[in-house]
Amino acid sequence: MTGKKPVFNPQILNHPPVEQTGVEERSVRFTKRSIKGPSKMQGLELVLSMIDLTTLEGKDTPGKVNQLCTKAKHLHDHIPGLPTVAAICVYPSMVSVAKKALEGTKINVASVATAFPSGQSSLRIKLADTRLAVEQGADEVDMVISRGKFHAGEYAYVFDEIAAVKAACDKARLKVILETGELGTLDQVRKASTIAIAAGADFIKTSTGKIQSAATLPVTLVMLETIRDHFQKTGKKVGMKPAGGISKSKLALHYLVMVKETLGDVWLDKHWFRFGASSLANDVLMQVAKEKAGNYQSPNYFSID
Amino acid sequence: MTQQSRLAIWKTYKIYIGGQFPRTESGRSYAIKNSAGKTIANACQSSRKDVRDAVSAARSAWGGWNNRSGFNRGQILYRIAEMLEGRKKQLKDELMAQGYTATVATREINLSIDRLIYYAGWCDKYQALFSSVNPVASAHYNFSVPESMGVVGMLAPTNAPLLGVISLMAPCIAGGNTCLILADQEKPLAAVSFAEVLHSADVPNGVVNILTGYQQELTDWISTHMDINAIVCFDQEKPDWQKIQENGAGHVKRMFRWNTQQLLRAGGQSPYLIMDLQEIKTTWHPIQTIAGSGGAY
């Protein structure tokens, strides 16, 4: 940030309405691409490198976080040459534990903040929450928007809040969670994405993973298209992170196809695209092992989380 | 105008995976012939991906099925028998369409039903019979109990389209396992109809999965699948037993060849077949002197 406070311009919300049927039909077509052999392997390894391995439970302990970090570093040592995941995603109280466990690696630590998952608190608390995460060493901050204010039409409030959190993030990259499952329509998703991007989001993210109806292909497509339109207008890139409900490698590959066909190859990189997931990694690993060994694998031979 | 005869409605023989009746993922089918060589139906020619789907369905069903009480599993096996009783005519027709005489078909169906009843009875009894309290030289209780293995891959025999499937399935699920059964390649019709019986008999989805197709094509995929804990076939059958053993050895798959002659006759049933698909778990538990431990106990 340059220190200049961004100002909300209601004009940005004047976009043509999102056509739901069109979006749904377009997203189904991404699932029809046939990806086999070497391209499948390449895709699977790319998926692994893009995962934000996540644990966001009330019952998280330092032990659990340490275990997750070990997994991030050693996805499946029986298969040499696998990438590591992109980041570990935890609550602010666990950032220092994760940071220490990941010392000397290139794996980032992402922390949720701003009264995650509901976001129902004051700006003061949310900023304190953000600073706590950053001070502990978080490389990335995942914030939630105030969906209540958004529905009440207080777009300027939502905008200012994101901008303020962005300022509090310092050097950490900011992911803005829209919690699309609570937004209702694709039109609202487009609106929230536009606000988040204008307010300075480095990433926009679909969901907290705490409610049903998390990341879906149509929702992600609308967000990707918002990113594309912003890029075409300003030349600035914004990242995308679908989270929640992506647990199968085939589905993850569909997402990659969508990213490629909507935004192009540049976004096929962990710097611009992430999967928020906990069980996806094992499924991808089992697929990779199956491709290498030739027979179907058993979860018994992979780590539990 | 003369009265038109009704159009025949031909049944689509589909496979049974996770409580659903999909066509094979591969979209392939093969012709099922009667003894005169005339095509009487088409069956799904399942692919390796159907095996994969069936195994994951069986795996997710296993926990719940295994945790049910033996008594409840017995009730459900009994219910399968009840449902089968009501479908006798259909199954008899299907067996006769493939060359059975009425007498032999009826005999096979009756034997199948009786076999289900037999294993229904065993569901809550084999544990008591095969468990033991073991004498040990320390202050411990030591007991061994049978526990289910998990997912079992089963290759049905030829020439017993219904009895073969039931002789495999019943001891397997009676003991809390779940299974994937590859039906007889040439005579799979009764097995598919039996899947419909299962579907209406309170059997939880995924506990039994039935595929049709070419044994030669699928045996390798079943025997190499690391998430299948055991494999059972009949000893007078074609599949290359040595190859199956080689495939399964790497991940310690339990492998059994059951005796065809013994199993496919009346009385070809035994709790030892349930025990083939059980692991024995031994537990040590310290003996406490309850009276001496005071209020802290």
Question: In terms of topology, how is this protein built?
Answer:
The complex is a heterodimer of chains A (305) and B (297).
Chain A (H helix, E strand, L loop, with lengths): L19 H11 L6 H13 L1 E4 L7 H12 L13 E4 L4 H7 L6 E6 L9 H13 L4 E5 L2 H5 L3 H15 L3 E5 L8 H13 L4 E3 L11 H18 L4 E3 L7 H15 L11 E3 L2 H14 L12
Parallel strand pairs in A: 1-2, 1-8, 2-3, 3-4, 4-5, 5-6, 6-7
Helix pairs in contact in A: 1-9, 2-10, 2-11, 5-7, 8-9, 9-10
Chain B lengths: L28 E5 L5 E6 L3 H20 L2 H17 L1 H10 L4 H21 L3 H5 L1 E2 L6 E9 L2 E5 L7 H12 L3 E5 L6 H11 L8 E4 L3 H10 L5 E5 L6 H9 L4 E5 L1 H4 L7 H6 L1 E9 L11
Parallel strand pairs in B: 5-6, 5-8, 6-7, 8-9
Antiparallel strand pairs in B: 1-2, 3-4, 4-10
Helix pairs in contact in B: 2-4, 3-4, 3-7, 4-6, 8-9
Mean pLDDT of chain B: 93
Order of helices and strands of chain A: HHEHEHEHEHHEHEHEHEH
Q: How do the strands line up in the largest sheet of chain A?
A: 7-6-5-4-3-2-1-8
| Rg of chain B, alpha carbons | 21 Å
Report the biggest beta sheet of chain B as strand number plus sense, adding barrel if it closes: 5 strands, parallel
In angstroms, what separates the terminal alpha carbons of chain B? 91 Å
Number of β-strand runs of chain B: 10
C-alpha geometry of chain A: globular
Q: Uncertain segments of chain B of ≥5 residues (pLDDT<50)?
A: none
Q: Report the β-strand fraction of chain B as a percent range.
A: 15-25%
What is the N-to-C succession of helices and strands of chain B? Answer: EEHHHHHEEEHEHEHEHEHHE
At the first level of CATH, what is the class of chain A? Alpha Beta
The name of the CATH architecture of chain B is: 3-Layer(aba) Sandwich
